[in-house]
Amino acid sequence: MTNKKVKQLQKAYELCEEFFCTGYDIMQAGNDFAQDDHEKQEFFRVLFGYFAKRKQKELVENNVY
Fold this sequence. Notes:
It is a single chain. The protein is mainly alpha-helical. 78% of the residues lie in helices and 0% in strands.
C-alpha cells in the first residue's frame, strides 16, 4: 500500500474514532445519515459496534462495569 493511502486510511480511522467515541447524539446522527439507505445503515452499524465494543472492553478493564 502506498504511503499516501496509509495516511488517508489513518485519517479516516481517526475521524471515525473521534465521531463514534464522543457519545453526543451519535444515534440521531446515524439515523439522519442512513435514513432509508441500507448500505449506509450497515456501514454505521458496523462502525458503531466496533467502537462500542472497544469502549465496553475499556470499561470492564477499569472495573467500571
